[in-house]
Amino acid sequence: MKSISFTLFWAFLIAFSISGTFASGAAKVNPPEQYFPVYDYQNDWLVYNPQYKNYVHFSQGVNEGARYVSLYVDLLKNRRYVLLLKAETESYLFLEGSLQNKINRNEWQELNIDSLYKIYKKDELLLTIYGSAGIGDKSVLLCNKKKLNDPTTIEQAGRNFINIKPITFTPFGNFAAISLILILILSVWIYNANPLSFIRLINPIEFFNNDPRDQLSKINKPYSNTVVFFVIITSMLMSFIVVFFSANKLNVFSVSTILSEKSNTLEILGDFFILSAIFFLLTYVKYICMVMAGNMLNLDKQVDIIFLKIIQSSYLFYAALFLFVFTLSFNHINWLTEMRMYVLAPFLLFYSARFLALYIVTKPPGSLINLYLFSYLCVIEIIPLIVGIKFAL
């Protein structure tokens, strides 16, 4: 009995040693001969966790069915090295969420770290491989090239890249689409209710029409349905621009004090409607001030004309700005960071040009009235512009 126990002990010890040798040897991956391995990323694989909305470490017992696996590559610390990728099944390579190319089966693919750093200008790069489930058939090595006679770099392979980015949905992108739909619905409603007035209001040439026999203000008073809804649309366009600035950390007129944290689409929509209501009320408060100033300067007949032209020009300017911002937002062009110092320049140029245009278009005969008109326009245009620029940023 004692000899049998002794024999079983040695048999178990030998079997355990052999299995440990095979286990340690199976994990080793050898790159091609012209490369010297520096680091193996086999233990750095990550998977995206929807619950935490972030990447977590790959777990054999939990994430074995994951076909997308990712890892972060430090580009700044690993300059002058190359990345080698290989998969035992046909897979696809993504860099920063953008599809780059196909990884052929059992073929090493080289990515130059210096080239990646020049292209993406980031210290850390997200690399993703899509293929079969798990990580057992995927290998990513950081290597040093022994020979410098191989000209293959990521720039040369870039001509064959597919470069297809997946569709991403952000709260501001959803809000932009909803606001565009709302503005289009209101525009269509105004057009169906009064097509002739709507066409004339959105016509830039109509702004310069100073024929006293064919004034648009004669059939469209500031309190008529068409003009009121036109002011609503203009207020929504202005509100969209302010929300866009606020979403990009540009606090215009300190509006962040009355707005939410913008963590979801509903909160952004709530801010949008609040700002639209404020701009609508301010527009008609301005009209009341225009009427009071016009009565004092004996320009009461010009007030409706000037107000309508102010609304018309504001609509054209902010509609063009809305389309510009909307297009750039959906193309993920980060232009506001570099243009932050000059963001008020288009507004200053527009309001200054509108002041001159209003004076030329609405100028009545008589030098004394011209002086009154100039003073009137300074009160309703120039003074608010100066005060607004002072407190804008």
Automatic annotation (TrEMBL):
InterPro entries: DUF4271. Keywords: Membrane, Signal, Transmembrane, Transmembrane helix. It comes from the Bacteria. The chain crosses the membrane at residues 172-191, 227-247, 272-294, 315-335, 341-361, 373-392. Residues 1-23 form the signal peptide. This is DUF4271 domain-containing protein. It comes from Dyadobacter chenhuakuii.
